[in-house]
Amino acid sequence: MGGGGHGDTLAFCLLPFALYFQGMLVLFRRVVVVLLLLAAGGALAYVRSDGFSFMLREIVMEQFEKRGLHLRLERLVLDPMEGLVAKNIWIYQDPEHHMLLATVDRLKVGLNFSRLLQKEVEIDVVDLHNANLSFPMDEDDPRSERLTLRSLSARVLFSGERIEIHKAEGD
Q: DSSP class of residue 8?
């Protein structure tokens, strides 16, 4: 009679082990989530670090040199909201940095993602937003009177050797 038998006894004996493994599984999931959050935080800290910035700075400067513009950048960061942002930029006409062409306080650099898939880095757009630019009136004399553009917002597109300026406005 009864139908309990050995199956009920076995299930009753295994119950503590099942509860133990269920608790361990929950603990394991929590540890994995915490480790993933720590890894994401570490990756973000590295991206915003000077080491990563230095590597990107060299790439950006090389891209502008291909177009005859020589840069000195104070800071280049990868911002999670805006992307690649350069701050306090001096643009020179010559590689020795004697002929200052312009100063820019901030610009956003857009990379050509289709070229990135081919393991090539290429800048295809630069966005200026409320930037201040200063150009010497006499390009041969960097100490000459300067033309200053304030609160300039513009999109600069790079297409091969061509540079196009779109939607430029400022004071």
A: H
The DSSP 8-state label assigned to residue 138 in this structure reads: S
Pull the structure tokens for residue 29: 């999931």
Closest CA to 78 of 104, 43, 113: 43
Which residues pair with residue 123 across a beta bridge?
111
Tell me what the mean pLDDT of segment 55-67 comes to.
Answer: 81
What's the gap between Cα 10 and its chain centre? 58
How do residues 92-112 score in pLDDT, each as one tens digit?
878 898 877 778 888 888 877
pLDDT tens readout for residues 63-97: 888 888 888 888 887 777 887 888 888 888 788 98
Strand 70-79, strand 123-136: pairing: unpaired
CA dihedral 121, 124, 127, 133 (to 10 degrees): 90
In this structure, are residues 131 and 107 in contact, taking their beta carbons and an 8 Å threshold?
A: yes
Structure tokens at 46: 């590295």
What is the rounded end-to-end Cα distance, in angstroms, of the chain?
A: 96
Whole-number Å distance between alpha carbons of 89 and 87: 6
